[in-house]
Design goal:
With 290 residues, the chain is α/β, with parallel strands linked by helices. The protein has 9 helices and 14 strands. It has one domain: Carbamate kinase, CATH 3.40.1160.10. Helix 3 packs across helix 4 and helix 6 runs parallel beside helix 8. It binds adenosine-5'-diphosphate and N-acetyl-L-glutamyl 5-phosphate (X2W). It is found in: Cytoplasm.
């Protein structure tokens, strides 16, 4: 009887979400544990089989850093973005496309899902350009060179339309190219936000390793359950958001301002976090609204 009640509670959500697109970003930190990753993929398949159209984008930051260290390179980040020289770029491609993307796709297949692994450059999904970061030093503004770090210039969702309309689940790595075919390393959160906007996703769901957006990053009990975009912009301006959370928050703001109904930042290392966030009244992480 209890099982049936759970289904009945979920019914209004299933009805509301049916046939809609949801962009789900799997963060590297939420994928460190393979067993947890497998359960997350099973949950995404559950969404798929109740009629939701998932589009998956993955990161892999911790594994890239681990591989870099094995090769004697020291990972360095500026505002949450990895400084990427040529050698680092090779490692990024090896880890993201060669390993993580492939692993996610095979895990979908293991559980009966039709997933297709692509990178953001495939079908010109994301056309990138080199990204520069400006920093204030005293009164002066200086430009920092991050190497082969890119940002998206144009999004062409055609390849996603083909896949999604034919019932495939796209699994996308954040490696894109510019018009000349030069390859760049993009932050997966940012790519997820842009793609969610371009495909007019109903939701953007970011899976990470903290309960959600915290008012105080050092206090896991300071979770913000619901926040408006305007308030989030204030927090960014006031430097209340740090490190890897910066691209996440920027991306969520972009998505919600560009047609995505709601965005969620949730703890992907907690079992069934996606299902709890989507199919229960209370949710589990941070929900961002317009
Ligand atoms: N206000 C904040 N709320 C939550 N996390 C924050 C905040 N500020 C910084 N962080 C940091 O951001 C990290 C998540 O970003 P990141 O390491 O890039 O994760 P992922 O691999 O999931 O993309 C958290 O582990 C946390 O240390
Ligand atoms: C430019 C840049 O920083 N790219 C990221 C790409 C992977 C990523 O975004 O991974 P997470 O989602 O696990 O953080 C990187 O090299 O780590």
């Amino acid at each position: 009887m209890q099982n049936v009640e759970v289904l009945v509670e979920a019914l209004p959500y299933i009805k509301d979400f049916h046939d809609s697109r949801m962009v789900i970003k799997l963060g590297g930190h939420a994928m460190v544990n393979e067993a947890v990753m497998e359960k997350t993929i099973r949950d995404i398949l559950l969404l798929y089989f109740v009629g939701i159209k998932p589009i998956v984008i993955h990161g892999g930051g911790p594994e890239i850093s681990e591989k870099m260290e094995k090769f004697g390179l020291k990972p360095k980040f500026i505002d949450g973005l990895r400084v990427t020289d040529r050698e680092t770029l090779e490692i990024v491609e090896m880890v993201l496309d060669g390993k993580i993307n492939s692993k996610i796709v095979s895990t979908f297949i293991k559980h009966g899902g039709k997933a297709v692994g692509i990178s953001a450059k495939d079908g010109l999904l994301v056309v990138a350009r080199k990204k520069t970061v400006k920093k204030k030093v005293g009164d002066e503004e200086i430009e920092l060179d991050l190497g082969f770090v890119g940002e998206s210039e144009v999004i062409n969702p055609d390849i996603l339309e083909v896949l999604v309309n034919n019932k495939f689940i796209p699994v996308i790595s954040p490696i894109a190219a510019d018009k000349e075919g030069n390859v760049f390393n993009l932050n997966a959160d940012v790519v997820a936000g842009h793609i969610a906007g371009a495909v007019k996703a109903k939701k953007l769901i970011m899976l990470t390793d903290v309960p959600g957006l915290l008012r105080d990053p050092n206090d896991r009990n300071s979770l913000i359950s619901t926040i408006r975009v305007s308030e989030l912009e204030e927090m960014l301006k006031e430097n209340k958001i740090k490190g890897g959370m910066i691209p996440k928050v920027e991306s969520v703001i972009y998505a919600v301002k560009n047609g995505v109904e709601k965005a969620h930042i949730i703890d992907g290392s907690r079992e069934h976090s996606i299902l709890i966030e989507l199919f229960t009244k209370k949710g589990i992480g941070t929900m961002v609204i317009r």
